Amino acid sequence: MALEKCKCVPWNYPNPFPDFTVPFCNYVGADCFDSEMHEPFLSCDCPNDCSAVTYPFHMSTKFTNTEETCKEDMITKIGIQ
Question: Are the CB atoms for 6 and 29 separated by under 8 Å?
Answer without folding.
Answer: yes
